[in-house]
Write a structure and sequence with these properties.
homodimer; about 350 residues; 3 domains; 7 strands
């Protein structure tokens, strides 16, 4: 019994996924065997490069694990996969709930696979630690895409910090690319900070919208519109067509108010109906146009390089802050200093210097 | 003559301003004497609280000095002034060159002093280290305000980093308030990052504009409009009146597209002619309205407290980054890691972890 428990928790460690406890004795040896059989790094790499989805999934599980040993292993796998990555087009897809994102991704993904592409669908959603993996639910809705041999759908990694989730997603992209996926969709929910994170890891940013009543611009996060390379007004069908066209015109006007992008790409607005499969080809064409333009003018490569720098600096900065604010002395003194500032006993600048000194004691 | 020289070079240390070196022997003892004569901290504080402009200026010079001894002294002075500060209304004034900022500040400042207020005009402009103090030039243009007993104009502190300049400006505000100035103008040039810094140290943010030809919104930094509590269209005179009114309407429409502010203040657009002294009273009224509203609803205090927290965290964060990137080991290794990332030999995340380890060696 003791033995069993330990081996089960060993498996837990290996895969980082909760497994049901088995009470059957013979299962112990199986588990042990399984453990011995855990593929080596080079086995992982060979299989991933051969496009083996089961190994890809297991490697992503290692990436998502919080166990340091797994992280070490996944780092090694990623490092060996890196030279084979970077060859896809990464598309960020965002939109508020209700906009028809899963239907859109299903139809858009199917269009890509029908053109001979291999599509991986990932999600970034820091809140998913609460309702574990919004895409998991989506997966049941993306019936067609799930069955497609050339598509791979992976739920959002759970995590408390956006930075952590973003890191896992970035590393997952590398693994998927090494496994031969040439098109990566990264879905995000369109209501929080995660759009900025997604924007900093994709080549093309697509905003899904609905035609609403009245002022289309009201209440939209300006930053998200500014990031968009395309705004797609979904559900442009049946009685909705006229309104969708009006919304399209309004967004087009709004986009023209923004300064030109460094990519030289003029963001486009288009309509579609994912449900009736109308207008999907136009969106595919847009992405093609964009990648052609930016690959020729050098922006595509430049942006990827900038994104790498961004993540390097961002990771360092986050880590420095985490170390500082979890420092015992700082934790103890911080409140007192904030109170002192509020009571005009010290300035923020002097308090900062003193806290920095404390953090080094 | 000698006496004068020696005291001047002593002043060099005290005031942090370059002065010709004296080679005369007897001057040394004089310097020493003068040094002994340098006012004590409590002398500084007493004089500043009594509204002595000459002591105020010398204290600000200490704030701006890079000499650690001066910083220690200015810190002590600021600390004793703090309980007497915080009682002014701080107004940020921004606008691109050519908008008539100096004329506006001169006339607006005179309006304040005519109402019995005491006005200090400061500037924040990190680029002024190149053309030392844009306001210095302005000062000659603000002929009336310079002569005004109830006005104090202080050129922009020089400095390489925006953070450093911002800190000096914030500390200067405290000294001016302790000296009895109840209205602080903080001028910025309206083309760079400095607006965000100014916005984080003022109560009211005023954007000066001109009526242009065509689309008023084109090319304006959206962030700046979003920060504005009032947009003032200057030079609304002679043949310009109609265009200014059109611009006013257009800005008013644009402002309505933004989500309501936490202050519950609906940003206003108005026109004026600083040159002909038309419409200045309306702007004064706007500021009064704003402060009444936000002092009653609690936002005024809340915002100042948030600004203090912002500067505390910002200073800590900047300092952590500075320490990291000036670390010898990091400096040596950083380029190699960036190259490795570019050549797909490592990921930004792994590189970050390794650099963080190096920084602790």
């Amino acid at each position: 019994m003791r033995k069993k428990k330990s081996s089960v928790s060993a498996l837990h460690e290996v895969e980082g996924v909760k497994q049901p406890l088995s009470t059957n004795d013979s299962s112990i040896s199986k588990i042990k065997q399984k453990r011995r059989e855990q593929p080596s790094e080079s086995e992982f790499v060979t299989k991933i490069l051969a496009g083996d989805i089961s190994y890809l999934s297991r490697a992503i599980t290692l990436v998502e694990s919080t166990n340091p040993k797994h992280q070490q292993k996944s780092n090694a796998i990623i490092e060996q996969c890196l030279p084979h990555a970077n060859k896809s087009v990464r598309i960020g897809i965002t939109g508020v709930p209700g906009v028809g994102k899963s239907t859109f991704i299903e139809v858009f993904g199917k269009f890509y696979t029908s053109k001979g592409n291999k599509v991986a669908v990932l999600a970034i959603d820091p809140s998913s630690s609460v309702n574990k993996g919004s895409i998991l639910g989506d997966k049941t809705r993306m019936e067609e895409l799930v069955k497609d041999q050339n598509a791979y759908i992976r739920p959002s990694p759970s995590g408390n910090s956006l930075g952590g989730v973003a890191q896992k997603t970035r590393e997952t992209i590398i693994l998927c690319e090494a496994a031969g996926f040439d098109t990566i969709f990264i879905e995000t929910v369109g209501v929080g900070q995660s759009e900025t994170a997604v924007h900093s890891m994709v080549d093309f940013f697509l905003l899904l919208k609905l035609a609403g009543a009245g002022d289309e611009l009201q209440g939209i996060k300006r930053g998200i519109i500014e990031m968009a390379d395309a705004i797609v007004i979904n559900k442009a069908d049946e009685n909705n067509i006229k309104q969708a066209e009006l919304a399209k015109a309004e967004f087009a006007r709004a986009l023209h108010l923004y300064p030109p992008k460094e990519s030289k790409w003029q963001p486009k607005v288009t309509t579609c109906s994912a449900f009736y499969n109308i207008g999907i080809d136009k969106i595919y064409e847009l992405v093609q146009e964009y990648t052609s333009l930016t690959k020729v003018n050098g922006y595509f490569e430049k942006r990827r390089s900038e994104q790498n720098n961004y993540w390097l600096l961002e990771t360092i900065n986050q880590q420095l802050k985490t170390e500082f604010y979890t420092n015992k002395n700082v934790k103890k003194a911080l409140k007192k200093y904030i109170t002192d500032i509020e009571n005009s006993k010290t300035t923020p600048f002097k308090a900062a210097q003193e806290l920095l000194k404390l953090s080094k004691k």
